[in-house]
Write a structure and sequence with these properties.
alpha/beta; 2 domains; 402 residues; globular; 12 strands
């Protein structure tokens, strides 16, 4: 028997009504019944903070930990020391900065995530946030729900995306797709900053220009979107000094990780008008406390805030497709008795096929609810030009891995 601990978020009534919200404690990633049938133990909780939490209570005898970037169980070096049986940490999403990777490596703990699963959803959210800020949408909408009507108050701070210089910090899976989606807007120029270069054909396809120095990059952009991973080199990257080098009245979008931007520097830049707007869905602490400054940060015209909970990674249909596709192609059952779960011999194709047939509702009822969009013929083909193989040292230090 293997003990699996999953740190998920509470979805409440919404999760009960929508079974495709797999990352909730109510729907348990869609694997609860299957694990039980295989004789394994699954503990699911959203209680993750403090020494008395369910997370820390169950961690010492946990062998597999599943957590998420949007409701992370922060696995520090100290906690890893208290988890001698832990062999595998799975991030049900993209980005494992909530795990001390050096400590995990020291203890020979495998860390895995669902790379590429969210690229379309995030890229679309970035584009939406850009338009929300540039067009000054939120104050206009608030007028309606507050029974108000003041066109001039909205129009004075609304602009066109056409003719603007838009750039991405990080031109990986997400940043590249953002640049693709900006093509029809007739921007003055599209820029990108990244330590890793794009293949020539990929750069040519998006008609974007690389800027090699970050300071030069931010000084040229009207709109900047952050699409890079969080690591030692990017933590606090957009601090007071770097933001001061951005164009006055520019917009900053962050859907990567909240800690890449300094919370105080962003708030002060908005209040002064140096930043016209800041938006995204990532926070340096998640869930964000009620007194987090980004909840109530505005520009001098009382706009410029497009912050939402960490939700851009997700659409129910895509989540189901990723889970089902992964189970169908790669799942090897844990049910065979063995002394070391992670060093088991590879199953024969017959054994694997038999195990797949036992996987419950993910590939049947849930998949059925998303057809026909999720049939094999309907799945979009990946653009070869957008994919890059980076050397291992670049994969750690690069801006483009997300």
């Amino acid at each position: 028997m293997v003990k699996v601990l999953a740190i998920l978020y509470s979805g409440g009534q919404s999760a009960k009504e929508e079974p495709r919200l797999l990352g909730t404690i109510e729907n348990q990633l869609g694997i609860a019944n299957w694990l039980k049938e295989q004789g394994h133990e699954l503990v699911v909780t959203d209680d993750k903070e403090g020494s008395s939490s369910e997370f820390q209570k169950h961690l010492p005898d946990t062998e597999i930990l599943i957590t998420t970037p949007f409701h992370p169980g922060y696995l520090t070096a100290d906690l890893i020391e208290k988890a001698p049986k832990l062999k595998l940490c799975v991030t049900a999403g993209v980005g494992s900065d909530h795990i001390d990777l050096n400590a995990a490596n020291k203890h020979k703990i495998t860390v895995a995530e669902v790379s590429g699963s969210n690229v379309v959803s995030v890229a679309e959210h970035v584009l939406m946030t850009i338009l929300t800020l540039v067009r000054n949408f939120v104050p206009a909408h608030e007028q309606i729900v507050n029974d108000d009507w003041n066109v001039a108050a909205v129009a004075r701070n609304a602009f066109d995306l056409e003719g603007k210089v838009v750039g991405t910090v990080g031109a990986g899976r997400i940043g590249y797709r953002v640049l693709q989606r900006l093509q029809p807007f007739d921007c003055k120029e599209l820029l990108w900053f990244d330590y890793a270069d794009l293949p020539p054909d990929a750069a040519k396809a998006i008609k974007a220009r690389r800027v090699e120095k970050l300071e030069d990059f931010v000084a040229q952009c009207d709109v900047i979107t952050i699409n890079c991973p969080l690591h030692e080199q990017t933590r606090g990257l957009f601090n007071k000094e770097l933001i001061s080098k951005m164009k006055p009245g520019s917009w900053l979008i962050n859907t990567a990780r909240g800690a890449i931007a300094d919370r105080t520097a962003v708030k002060e830049a908005l209040a002064s008008g140096h930043l016209r707007g800041y938006g995204g869905d990532v926070w340096d602490v998640q869930p964000a406390p009620q007194d987090h400054p980004w909840r109530h940060s505005f520009n001098p015209l009382n706009g410029g805030n497009a912050m939402v909970p960490h939700c851009e990674f997700f659409s129910p249909a895509r989540c189901v497709w990723v889970m089902a596709d992964g189970f169908d192609k790669t799942l090897v059952p844990l049910s065979t008795p063995r002394s070391d779960t992670l060093k088991a011999p590879r199953k024969s194709s017959a054994d694997t096929s038999k195990a797949r047939s036992k996987i419950p509702s993910i590939s049947s009822s849930l998949m059925a609810s998303t057809r026909p969009r999720l049939t094999a013929s309907a799945r979009p083909k990946r653009r070869k030009s957008a994919r890059r193989r980076l050397p291992s040292k670049m994969a750690i230090g690069s801006f483009s891995c997300r």
